[in-house]
Write a structure and sequence with these properties.
Blueprint (H helix, E strand, L loop, with lengths): L5 E4 L7 E4 L4 E6 L2 H6 L5 E5 L10 E4 L3 E2 L14 E7 L4 E6 L1
């Protein structure tokens, strides 16, 4: 579980499931696809555990700048929802596996 002020950065090698637990977190920075694949290529699961995610949505960001998903609040307004992202080498992007 990550309690963060501002951005949350996911490790390329260590983090498989990340639970964001407060209302001061904003962006979630993903590792590069290449780094994640080199570390084993596992999916990364994100859960927005904020008490009111509708008011405090999280924005996933790839490689520090590129938006992963084109929806306004891809990290859910449902505290029970976990979104899994799979690194895809062919497109150098993260693909949402479930929502």
């Amino acid at each position: 579980t990550v309690v963060a002020v501002g951005a949350v950065t996911i490790s390329a090698t260590d983090d498989d499931d990340v639970y964001i637990a407060n209302t001061t977190a904003t962006n979630v920075y993903f590792p590069t696809v290449a780094a994640r694949i080199a570390a084993g290529g596992r999916c990364i699961g994100i859960k927005n555990n904020n008490s009111n995610p509708a008011l405090y949505p999280l924005t996933p960001v790839r490689s520090g700048s590129d938006t992963i998903d084109d929806t306004a609040t891809p990290l859910s307004q449902d505290t029970n929802r976990i979104i899994r992202y799979k690194p895809i080498a062919a497109t150098n992007d993260w693909e949402i596996q479930n929502g």
